[in-house]
DNA sequence: GTTCTAACA
DNA sequence: TGTTAGAA
């Protein structure tokens, strides 16, 4: 199987217990159970042990909600905002999963490189290449003819 | 030792 | 939400 898909599966199947999540994220176990009761988060639906496990997606959601709470939003407001983030994340992920294959390393030591972001053909037949660049100047997009 | 539910502060 | 009790 393609390595990217394997890693995708691995990350998708990572599960963390409520104790770990609570400790690392800084949210109490009581809160996590309460958020679940409110329907905001859902433990991975598996066996009948009754022990809660959370996958990566839920983990991201938990972290996001926590951040919003810290900023002063109510729990309800935090969850409402997370809906936006989830859609945006999916869009970004879809876009970059596609372009991740076309990465050219320009400087291995410094971690510089170029990402092929696709082509653009204008009405008059000219062809351009969009490239995402990471180099000593930072992070930017350029257009090559 | 960890997690669960339920109940009360 | 925090905490605590009692069970798994």
UniProtKB/TrEMBL annotation:
Pfam name, any one: MerR_1
> According to the UniProt entry, where is the signal peptide?
none
**An example Gene Ontology molecular-function term:** DNA-binding transcription factor activity
Q: Which PROSITE patterns match?
A: HTH_MERR_2
Protein source organism: Lactobacillus paragasseri
Name it: MerR family transcriptional regulator
Q: Where is the HTH merR-type domain?
A: 18-84
Which keywords annotate this record? Answer: DNA-binding
InterPro entries listed in its UniProt record: DNA-bd_dom_put_sf (IPR009061), MerR-type_HTH_dom (IPR000551), MerR_fam (IPR047057)
């Amino acid at each position: 199987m393609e390595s990217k898909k394997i890693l995708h599966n691995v990350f998708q199947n990572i599960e963390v217990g409520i104790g770990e999540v609570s400790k690392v994220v800084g949210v109490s176990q009581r809160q996590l159970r309460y958020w679940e009761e409110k329907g905001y988060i859902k433990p991975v639906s598996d066996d009948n042990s009754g022990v809660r496990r959370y996958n990566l997606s839920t983990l991201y959601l938990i972290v996001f909600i926590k951040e919003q709470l810290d900023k002063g939003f109510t729990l309800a407001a935090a969850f409402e905002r997370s809906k936006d983030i989830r859609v945006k994340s999916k869009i970004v992920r879809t876009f970059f999963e596609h372009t991740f294959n076309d990465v050219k390393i320009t400087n291995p030591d410094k971690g510089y490189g170029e990402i092929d972001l696709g082509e653009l053909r204008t009405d008059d037949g000219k062809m351009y290449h969009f490239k995402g660049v990471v180099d000593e100047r930072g992070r930017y997009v350029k257009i090559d003819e």
